[in-house]
What does this fold into?
Amino acid sequence: MRAAYQGGAPGVLISGLAWLIADAAWYVMDGFIAFLVLLVAGMLIFPLSLLVARLFRAPRVSQGNALNKLAIEATIPLFAGLLIAFVLAPRSPEFAFAALAIVIGARYFAFATLYRERVYWLLGGALFLIGTGFAVQAGALPVHVTLAVGAAELLFGALLFTRWNAAAAAAPAAA
It folds into this structure.
């Protein structure tokens, strides 16, 4: 899975962009519209990350890979988090986005196993802390949680992509 999805880096980068687009929608429109924007953009993360991986000539995932099941199983709690956030969004967009950040952060912990990359523990912890911080003190910072999550994912996505490229470049030399 690591090679087929470039260590998950394209997905993290695209997710970060989705959060930043939602942040812009929040500033221009309102929090519930921003949530809907994130919901739609979130549905595009996997297909767009797959497209990016194919553009970089990543191999396909083998059908017999046992980690395919873990990837699907790790998505189920995401749907629960989306449902919770959807119910919260009209009443408290700040809390809805914070709750969703916590769920997504928790989901990233499984990515450490999926992609054999410990950086996902740091990313998961960062999003978990960002979500918790904004849930507890929503108005403490002059920015939305969407900006903080988007920025964190872009930074970690760049780190993951750099690490994946370094590992891919070193692999032929080791063979």
The chain has a mean pLDDT of 86. The chain is about 75% helix and 0% strand. The helical segments are 9-28, 31-43, 45-55, 67-73, 76-88, 93-114, 119-136, 145-174. The longest helix spans residues 145-174.
